[in-house]
Amino acid sequence: MHDKLDIARALREIALLLQLKGENPFKARAYDTGAQALEELTDDLGALVAEKKLTSVRGVGAALAGQIAELFQTGRSEQLEALRAELPPGVLELSQVPGMTLKRIKALHEALGIGSVEELKQACLTGKVRGVKGFGAKIEATLLEGIYRHETRDERVLLADALEVAEPLLAHVRGCEAAAQADLAGAIRRWEETVDRIDLVAAAEDPAAVTDCLARFPRVAAVDDRGASRCAVRFSGGLSGELLCVPPGDYAAALLHRTGAPAHVEALRALARGQGLSLDERGLLRGGERLPATTEEELYRHLGLPFIAPELREGEGEIEAAAARRAGERDDGLIEEADIQGMVHCHTVFSDGKNTIEEMALAAEVMGMKYLTITDHSPAAHYANGVGVDRLKRQWDEIARVQERVKVKLLRGTESDILESGALDYPDAILERFDIIIASIHSRMKMDADQMTRRLVNAMRLPVFKIWGHALGRLIQRREPFACRVEEVLDAVAGSRAAIEVNGDPHRLDMEPRWIKEARKRGIRFVISTDAHSTGGLHNLRFGVGTARRGGLRRGEVLNALGPDAFQQAVRP
């Protein structure tokens, strides 16, 4: 088992099974920490195993290093196999059902012997679950709803997980001698939050040589289908992929077709027909003669349009918006990663982060950032070691000490909890002393829409400047956004001293592009954040930027595209 992600999955399974057994939670957490360390690892895992240097990785102790080495060298873990034998099959699947907490899984297993989703479904349908102590009819109904959602979910993976495969795959295909060009396409190139397959387009005179190259990629588990110009594969882990290889002259049109959502491509075809042209995967034709185009930009220009960024190609009005710009004007003003001058929303060891203030600062410097906000959790987030008033002075003193040793400007901030009333969980006198305030909801997320709307409106109307953090509280594929009247809250933001975060955590990507578009209509300003809990988490920036671009955000609408002084002035409480 040489793939670090496969080993990380095995460690997470051990962690979950240990929790189900009721083992020491710190022991289980160590496996989760080790899994995250592997996922973020940039060094060569094989070399670390061979040189017995796994313990040099932060979060990996001697015992965990032994487990990782065993998995790497043998593909097996005696501990994992023993844990699987102790618990009924299906327990891991049960944990994927919305509403099935570890406590509930254990209780239902002990009371009813439930060990699979099907057994849980039958127990709910026959009314057995409500008879178990601590459950009842309401929870039984909630679990049935969760089972339905579990059974009807589509097999998609997070964008970040797909990129773990897609980017090395792209490098592999580009390294093929026969490939003149190659690019990712489809949902990945549009930066959609979840992906059902990896699409690539390549250009070559000898397509068979390129599809052979694809089939030799180490993570390809099976070749499902293969033709003269295409190859469909499955990767270890279950994700599928497809490569289309075309002659170099067809490359731009093939990439255009394979990137855009069907609605975007159909709208382009309709536009072409209206101009006496026809558009297909081979190119743009007039009377059977292909118009010269070696880039997507040239194809758009032939249609009288400026270039449309891949992130916008959803068929949601982007063609009409592009037509309003001058044809050939490529710069649409969309925010780019290079525009970001400061890292916003970063946690350290003062709350639930894994790195010190200095380690975070130095990592931000390496990435070329000019400022970094230290926004650890606040007192109400006791589960995350929130920083109470009594610890603030120590944190601020540490920020001052580190500032003397680093070039990046450090801003002292907080991720302050929005309480049930809409108040923040620091006194006003303390809030006014921060450089920046992220205001977020971490509790009581099941309030009804009226209650949640009132809570958020009250928070946004507070006199201090605040940034609405991970706005709707979703965790992609794990937790739905909480109920509220979003437009009403956006109106409150627009009329207050407030901005909105585009959270780059790949599990959040919140707020969503559709609400970013609504906020832009109101002139609301944004920050693009990382929600980093480690130095590796700073690289979440690109996911925040991708989500912001899908929402149409321009450079001038993003506060952390400003320099340090202008940013600090803009967000001052």
Can you walk me through this structure?
The protein is an alpha/beta fold and 573 residues long. It has four domains: 4-86, DNA polymerase beta, N-terminal domain-like (DNA polymerase, domain 1, Orthogonal Bundle), CATH 1.10.150.110; 105-152, no CATH class; 158-323, Beta Polymerase, domain 2, CATH 3.30.460; 337-571, Metal-dependent hydrolases (TIM Barrel). The strands form four sheets. Strands 11-12-13-14-15-16-17 form a seven-stranded parallel β-sheet. Helix 20 (449-460) runs parallel beside helix 21 (486-494). The longest helix is centred in the N-terminal third of the chain and has 18 residues, at 4-21. The chain starts with a helix and ends with a helix. The model has no long low-confidence stretch (mean pLDDT 92). Residues 1-314 form the DNA-directed DNA polymerase X domain. GO terms for molecular function: DNA binding; DNA-directed DNA polymerase activity; phosphoric ester hydrolase activity; zinc ion binding. It holds the Pfam family HHH_5. One of its GO terms (biological process) is DNA repair.
